[in-house]
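Dig into what follows:
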Amino acid sequence: MESEEAVLVVDDDARVAATLSDFLTGEGYSAAVVRTGAEGLRRIREGGVGLVLLDLRLPDMKGSAVMREAQLNPAPPEFII
């Protein structure tokens, strides 16, 4: 992951997302949080995301669908589920 790329947390559980974001920020990473698959895809398409921490159960779509859609980008991020 390039240093200017962010880690994107896609999770509808606010406590889990905040915990992950706080940890990543404390370790020196740039972290962003979104709560839905659609928001995650929008953020990935904007660029600058190198890694996605992805919940498989989201309120609007399955996490696997987010991964499939993201893989269509010219430079897709890595995923951790």
Summary: The helical segments are 14-26, 37-46, 63-70. The longest helix spans residues 14-26.
